[in-house]
Amino acid sequence: MGAKFFYFLDCATVFPSCFIMYNDSRFTEDIPSLGAHMITGVGIDLCRISRIAVCLRRPGFEEKVFAERERIYAKSMKNPAQHFAASFAVKEAFAKAGGWGIGKVGLKNVWLERTPTGPVIFLEDPARLLMESMGAEKIHVSLSHEGDNVVAVVLLEGGRQDVPL
Question: Is residue 16 part of a domain?
Fold first, then answer.
């Protein structure tokens, strides 16, 4: 008998994030296939806030690395370096999620905005084109701050595919 795959449901969205192989078809009989969104990439980056604070003292660093909206937002906050570090971590995590590296993506082609529903990543070419070329359609981002560290996790989600359950 062939191997059978079971996919676990994650909230209301289905991700084939984990599977168990069985050699017994009775576990999968009469279960239809399901159109599932596929994870096309995952990236994570940890950034020290103090490191970004030092970099921000260099002339031109801020303008070279961050989009205007990121700069305006960070400077309006009590601890700007923390928010610049979060934006930097998002750029790196996005580049890792696609496997491209930050040089190919471009620092200012990926920027972070905070909305009432959470952080949102925006893209300009070539970052947008790289994402589309791998079949990714959605970006999910999560940020966390603790002490002198900021962590960003970026998940790229692709098109629907029929996944046998």
Answer: yes
